[in-house]
Amino acid sequence: MTKILVSADMEGATGVTWPADCLPGTPEWQRCRPMFTSDVNAAIAGFFDGGADEVLVNEAHMTMRNLLLEQLDDRAQLLTGRHKDLSMVEGVQHGDVDGIAFVGYHTGAGDEGVLAHTYLGNSITGVFVDGVRASEGLLNSLVAAEYGTPVVLVTGDDRACADAAGYAPDARTVAVKDYVSRYAAVCRTPTRTAADIRAAAARAVGLATRHAPPPARERVIEVGFDAEHLAGAAALVPGVEQIGPRRVAFTATTMYEGIRCFKAVTTMVSAAVEEWYG
Fold this sequence. Notes:
Layout: E1 3-8, H1 27-49, E2 54-59, E3 77-79, E4 99-105, E5 124-129, E6 132-133, H2 136-145, E7 151-157, H3 158-167, E8 172-181, E9 184-187, H4 190-204, E10 219-225, H5 228-234, E11 241-244, E12 247-252, H6 255-272
Parallel strand pairs: 1-2, 1-4, 2-3, 4-7, 7-8
Antiparallel strand pairs: 5-6, 5-10, 8-9, 10-12, 11-12
Helix pairs in contact: 1-4, 2-3, 5-6
C-alpha cells in the first residue's frame, strides 16, 4: 500500500500572480480556485497512474478552505479547514504516509519568487534554520523527515522548483510559471500545467518509500521582522528570545515542536500588526 499526502498551497498554483488571486472572498480568488483545483487533481491522477493506493489532500493555504471539493478527483480525500496540529503538513505525523507532495508552493520571505513569503504575507523578512534561509517547503520537509516521509513532488514557479533542489534534491518538480517579479510571471495554461504535473506525479510514486527518520537533533530557528515591536510580540511566546531589534530565536528539540512554536510566533505577530504602520 502506497499512501501520498498532498500539501496544497495556493500562491504557487497555475495562474496565480497577485495577492487578490489567493485572498479568500475576492473575485480574483474565485476565478483562480478552479486552476488551483486543477493542479491538485493533476497530481492526484498522476499518483494513481503511478500506482499509489491512497491520496490525502491537506489544504495548506490561509483559511485552508480554497479547493473545490465538488470538482476534486473522487479517488482522493480532502482535509480542509484550519487549526490543525501540523498546519500545512497535517497527517504526516500518523506514520502511514509514504511520500509527500508540495503542490502550489513558493519561495520564502526575503527571496525572489512570485508572492514569496513565509507563513505571513508581510512582516517577516526572513526565517532561518541553523543559519539557512528557510522557505515553507524547507520547514515542512524537515517536519516530514522526522516521520521518515520523503518529499516526492514540488510544483510552483521556477524559483520554488530551484528552492526545492536544496531540501528535496530527488523530488520531481514542475514549474507552472516563470518568475518576473513578486507580482508577475510568465504563466503556462491550465491544460499544459495539468499534463506536466500528472506526468511528474506518476514518476514521483517511485520515490515514495518511508525510511528511518534521521537522528534527533536540536534546531535553532531565527525569525526577522520589518518592525521592532513585532520582535517584542514574538518574544511573548515561551522559549522565544529577542536577539536583536527586529529578530528573535528559539531552539526546538524536534521540528514537530519547532513548527508549532513558529506558528505561535506568527499568530502573535499577526495580532500586533497595525493597519497603517505595520
